[in-house]
Amino acid sequence: MGRFLVLLGAFVLLWHSFRSVARQISSEASQRPSHSGKVDGKPAEEVTVPEEVTGKLVRCAQCGVHVPQERAILDRGQTYCGEHCQAQAAPSSAS
Ligand SMILES: [Zn+2]
Protein backbone atom coordinates (compact mmCIF):
# COMPACT_ATOMS: atom_id res chain seq x y z
CA MET A 1 0.00 0.00 0.00
CA GLY A 2 2.80 2.37 0.91
CA ARG A 3 4.53 1.59 -2.33
CA PHE A 4 1.40 2.41 -4.26
CA LEU A 5 1.19 5.81 -2.55
CA VAL A 6 4.82 6.55 -3.44
CA LEU A 7 4.12 5.63 -7.04
CA LEU A 8 1.03 7.80 -7.03
CA GLY A 9 2.99 10.73 -5.56
CA ALA A 10 5.69 10.36 -8.17
CA PHE A 11 3.07 10.23 -10.90
CA VAL A 12 1.38 13.40 -9.60
CA LEU A 13 4.73 15.18 -9.40
CA LEU A 14 5.55 14.18 -12.96
CA TRP A 15 2.13 15.26 -14.15
CA HIS A 16 2.42 18.65 -12.50
CA SER A 17 5.87 19.34 -13.94
CA PHE A 18 4.71 18.22 -17.37
CA ARG A 19 1.69 20.51 -17.22
CA SER A 20 3.72 23.54 -16.10
CA VAL A 21 6.19 23.00 -18.92
CA ALA A 22 3.39 22.61 -21.44
CA ARG A 23 1.74 25.78 -20.17
CA GLN A 24 5.03 27.67 -20.44
CA ILE A 25 5.49 26.57 -24.02
CA SER A 26 1.93 27.46 -25.01
CA SER A 27 2.12 30.90 -23.35
CA GLU A 28 5.40 31.58 -25.10
CA ALA A 29 3.87 30.63 -28.42
CA SER A 30 0.89 32.89 -27.89
CA GLN A 31 3.03 35.84 -26.83
CA ARG A 32 5.16 35.58 -29.92
CA PRO A 33 4.00 37.94 -32.68
CA SER A 34 2.91 36.31 -35.86
CA HIS A 35 5.24 36.76 -38.78
CA SER A 36 2.65 37.99 -41.22
CA GLY A 37 5.06 40.36 -42.93
CA LYS A 38 3.29 43.59 -42.04
CA VAL A 39 6.52 45.57 -41.96
CA ASP A 40 8.11 45.34 -45.35
CA GLY A 41 11.82 44.79 -45.14
CA LYS A 42 12.26 46.54 -41.80
CA PRO A 43 13.81 44.78 -38.85
CA ALA A 44 11.46 44.46 -35.89
CA GLU A 45 13.69 46.58 -33.66
CA GLU A 46 12.97 49.74 -35.65
CA VAL A 47 9.22 49.41 -35.33
CA THR A 48 9.00 50.93 -31.86
CA VAL A 49 7.32 54.20 -32.86
CA PRO A 50 3.62 54.05 -31.94
CA GLU A 51 2.77 56.04 -35.07
CA GLU A 52 3.67 53.08 -37.22
CA VAL A 53 0.40 51.34 -36.52
CA THR A 54 -1.27 49.68 -39.45
CA GLY A 55 -3.85 52.01 -40.98
CA LYS A 56 -2.18 55.24 -39.85
CA LEU A 57 -2.45 57.96 -42.44
CA VAL A 58 0.44 60.20 -43.33
CA ARG A 59 0.36 63.37 -45.40
CA CYS A 60 2.17 63.62 -48.68
CA ALA A 61 4.73 66.43 -48.44
CA GLN A 62 4.21 67.29 -52.10
CA CYS A 63 0.49 67.20 -52.87
CA GLY A 64 -1.00 66.92 -49.39
CA VAL A 65 -2.89 63.71 -50.02
CA HIS A 66 -3.24 61.39 -47.04
CA VAL A 67 -2.08 57.87 -47.67
CA PRO A 68 -1.64 54.81 -45.42
CA GLN A 69 1.82 54.91 -43.94
CA GLU A 70 2.56 51.40 -45.10
CA ARG A 71 2.09 52.57 -48.67
CA ALA A 72 3.77 55.94 -48.31
CA ILE A 73 7.28 56.57 -49.55
CA LEU A 74 9.69 57.89 -46.95
CA ASP A 75 12.48 60.04 -48.32
CA ARG A 76 14.80 62.27 -46.27
CA GLY A 77 12.29 62.66 -43.45
CA GLN A 78 9.37 63.47 -45.79
CA THR A 79 6.53 61.19 -46.75
CA TYR A 80 5.10 61.02 -50.25
CA CYS A 81 2.00 59.36 -51.64
CA GLY A 82 3.86 57.95 -54.59
CA GLU A 83 6.98 57.93 -56.66
CA HIS A 84 5.75 60.78 -58.81
CA CYS A 85 5.47 63.14 -55.83
CA GLN A 86 8.83 61.99 -54.56
CA ALA A 87 10.32 62.77 -57.95
CA GLN A 88 8.62 66.20 -58.04
CA ALA A 89 9.92 67.10 -54.60
CA ALA A 90 13.45 66.03 -55.42
CA PRO A 91 13.98 66.09 -59.17
CA SER A 92 16.99 64.05 -60.07
CA SER A 93 17.28 65.75 -63.47
CA ALA A 94 18.02 69.16 -61.89
CA SER A 95 21.61 68.36 -61.25
ZN1 LIG B 1 1.59 63.22 -53.35
Account of the protein in words:
With 95 residues, the chain is α+β, with helices and mostly antiparallel strands. The protein has a domain at 55-95: Wheat Germ Agglutinin (Isolectin 2), domain 1 (2-Layer Sandwich). Helix content is 39%, strand content 13%. It has two helices and four strands. It has helices at 2-31, 83-89; strands at residues 57-59, 66-68, 73-75, 78-80. Strands 1-2 form a two-stranded antiparallel sheet. The chain has a two-stranded antiparallel sheet with strand order 3-4. The structure holds zinc ion. The site of zinc ion has 8 residues, from loops.
Provide the fold topology.
Blueprint: H1 2-31, E1 57-59, E2 66-68, E3 73-75, E4 78-80, H2 83-89
Antiparallel strand pairs: 1-2, 3-4
Bound molecules: zinc ion (ZN).
